[in-house]
Each structure stands twice: as structure tokens, then as C-alpha cells.
Amino acid sequence: MTPTKIVTVVGARPQFIKAAAVSRAVRARRDSGLVEVLVHTGQHYDKMMSDVFFEELGIDAPAYNLAIAGGGHGAMTGRMLEALERVFIDERPDWVLIYGDTNSTLAAALAASKLHIPIAHVEAGLRSFNMRMPEEVNRIVADRLSTLLLCPTEASIANLQREGTTEGVHVVGDVMYDVALHFSQAADEHTQLLTQLGLTPKAYVLSTCHRAETTDDPVQLEGIVTGLAEIAKRRAVVLPIHPRTRGKLVEFGLMDRLTGVQLIEPVSYLDMVTLEKNAEVIVTDSGGIQKEAFFYRVPCVTTRRETEWVETVEAGWNVLVGTDAQAMVAAVESHAQQKRLDVHPYGDGDAANRILDLLLMHPAATHSK
Fold this sequence. Notes:
Blueprint: E1 4-10, H1 13-27, E2 34-40, H2 51-57, E3 64-65, H3 73-91, E4 95-99, H4 103-114, E5 119-122, H5 134-145, E6 148-151, H6 154-162, E7 169-171, H7 175-190, H8 193-197, E8 204-207, H9 212-215, H10 218-231, E9 236-240, H11 243-251, E10 261-264, H12 269-278, E11 281-284, H13 287-295, E12 300-302, H14 310-314, E13 318-320, H15 325-333, H16 351-361
Parallel strand pairs: 1-2, 1-4, 2-3, 4-5, 5-6, 6-7, 8-9, 8-11, 9-10, 11-12, 12-13
Helix pairs in contact: 1-7, 1-16, 3-4, 4-5, 7-12, 10-15
């Protein structure tokens, strides 16, 4: 049997999490002839943003680490495109597997399509309908170039249908739910972070802030800073601070405005899960953390006007407030009165195996190299 080779491209923390589920499923199917080659573009490059995630999630060290980070979108994507093209030519894979909506996703899709290598896109069909978001551009282009569009929900299928895309489209569930189920108990047993930080379960607010459209706009960032400082007058607030966010807070003179907010360095995956599960409320601009809050049934306040994860809002677990400080405060204060539904729109925790089944079954898996 000729092996089916998958080159998986990741570059950012959320992608490491998603890839962990599929990589684990590949290892469990050694007799199926699947071979995975992992490529890390280096988009997230420091130890707490990268290395620790690989270690904790049980992902093998990447076969390639391209060490491409920093610079503008064009420069970063261009360097990744050049380097990934060389990798794909050398490896000659049957599939290029991409995740989400980062510059790494876009570069891999472009490189593979120009070499006529089939692409499978995990989290296909997500839309914020905000073209000012770099992620929206990345995901639309990636979907257009992909052979297999692996959708997490029925809503993502509907988005693709509205755009006229119906071939190669499949609902597989959400691989992040696979990971959440697998690592939830391990996080409880692994970390002493709450004790170290002096936090009481269900008596603090966890916040994250990293998206460029927020951090790069001083008005938007000031709104979030003002809101968090106001929330911190009544509740403990902990903020693991993204390196780019820290730089922008300093640049805009906002660091001193985070009065009462406990700033900590980025944490490992298992530590982050512990912080999420034990929070009273989560305030975030992260798509992945919106979902994880939903998985762990923690109320979420999202500092955006739109979300790709509409199911979390429809179920009452997530509220969109933008960057208005008073709206943030009001949403946190009123969370206990929010009506929430016990629904499970993201599958049953077996998305990774469904993805592998499709990769093995699809005609592109036997294309001529």
C-alpha cells in the first residue's frame, strides 16, 4: 500500500491546538498508511507561544521550523510562501492540511495550489463578514483554493453555499472540541496556577486581547483597557498579555491605565484551560477562546461586533459588545441573568477521525505525484 502523505502547516497557538487532535488520530492509525509531516512556520515563535504547546499537547517536534515571524502581512506571507513552496516540492505530499485563518494558512494555500497539490482546510466556511479583518481575507482565499472544505458546523456550510461553493464540502465537527474533551481532566491535574496567582475559582474574570484590528487602533484598545480597569474595581481580573498587545499598550501610553488588572506572561495550554474553566466570566477577542468558554460552559463577553462562532451567541453563552467600556462592564455585571441553552453544535468530539476518513477516501488522495 502506498502511504498517503499529509503535510500539515501550522504557525500560531490556536493551530497547534487543532493540529494536536488530528496528529493524535494519525498516530493511532499507523496501519492505515497515513504519514504526517508537520511544518511550523514560526509565526508564534517564543517558548510560551510555541514550544510549550507542542510539549503539552503531545505533538511531535516539527519536521520543519521555518522561523518566519515579524514584519507586515505582505512580508510575512511572502517569506512563508517562498519557504513552503520549497518544502512542498521536496516532500511531494498527497495533501496539504491547513487550519483556520492565519498568514500561515494563506501562504500554505497559495503555495500548494500553484503546485497543484490538493488542500484540505479545517474550519472552512467560517465568516465574520468583516473584510477589515486580515483573518477574513485569509479564510476566504483558503476556502476558494481548497479541495476539501472541512466545516465545523452547519452554519459554515450555509456560508459556503451562499458563495456558490458546494463541492468537497463536509461537516466534520470542531477539532477544538476533540482537544477540549481530551485535555480537560489533564489540565485539572497538571497546574497549580490558580494558587500561584492567588485566584479563587469562579471569583475572577479572565481576559485576552490580541487581534490586530483591536490592538493596532488606539481608540479601540483604550476602550478595552478602560473597561477592564472598571471591571477590576469589583472583581479580580487576570490578563495573560500577548507580546504584540504589550508593545501597543506601551506605544499608546495605555499600560498605566490597566489599574487593578493582574498582568501575566502568556501561559501554556494546560494552564490556559485551567484559567478558562475556573473563571466566572471570560472577556476576549479570540475566536478560539470564545469556543473554549462555550465548551467549558463559562459565560463569555466578546470585544468584537461580530463573531464567526454564531452558535455561542445564539445559545446565550456569548455576548458581543465591541470595545465600548461601559458595554463590557454591563455585560460582565449582568451575566448571571443571561438565559443559556445546553446545546452541542460542534459535534461529538470525533472530528479528527472524520477528517482522516475524508482524506483517505477522496480521489485527490491518489493523485499522481
